[in-house]
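Contributing new records

If you add data, match the layout below exactly. Sequence lines come first and carry their own label; structure lines follow with theirs. Keep one chain per record. Anything else will be rejected by the validation script.
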Amino acid sequence: MSGTVAVDGIDVHVEGEGAETIVMVHGWPDTYRLWDAQVAFLRERYRCVRFTLPGFDIAKARRACSIDEMAEFLRHVVERVSPGRKVTLLLHDWGCMFGYQFYMRHPQLVSRIIGVDIGDTKGLRRSLSWRGRFIILAYQWWLALAWIVGGRLGDRMTLWMARWWRIPSDHRFIGSCMAYPYYRTWFGGRQNYRAQMRRFNPSCPMLFVYGRRKPVMFHAQVWIDELLARKDNRVVEFDTGHWIMLQQPERFNQSVSSWLSATAAVS
């Protein structure tokens, strides 16, 4: 299969003819375009699958998926593009959170996981300084408010935050519709994301890649130690910010490719 298929109303782009499939999931404030350099590099050996997350397309109606709804969407994608075979997940930002939760609900569909800059929450709260906690709360509440406001003002609020963080993504595709994960995390009532999260405890091989030039880290050392205690897992630090695949694409691609070659995918 190659080209574009529709899954639950979302365009899913499939490129490459390899036997193994990599499903790439972006986060805020990105679209499927985040993975352009990775697809160009990997499609000679792998089938690369990517899409814009439900609710993140500024050209479509607003929607705010729950964790369970997102996990079901990812299941539908995997079963459509790789029937009967496990896939490798390549995840970034909110894509990590959604991908990790998908794995915890459907581990039988996943062979390997590559997490970029977002780890599990184990030990994270204790590892954050008061400054770090304030930074996280400030930008996440701002984006939650942008979602609530919506419209042109909400879009301007979201773009202001993207510019303030100097986010290297294409600002033409950024809007307040993408901010619903922050709203659902903090103001989602009984359906808030924190209540729906399952502890991420992968038994499949995992590569974790993170940038060290950030005001706060999104993982704790105790989780890294736990990860490295398992066979085939690897952790790679980059001298970048949060968007490693855009800031050092060549090294990132080589790191991903070498780890994939070193770890056998399970059918």
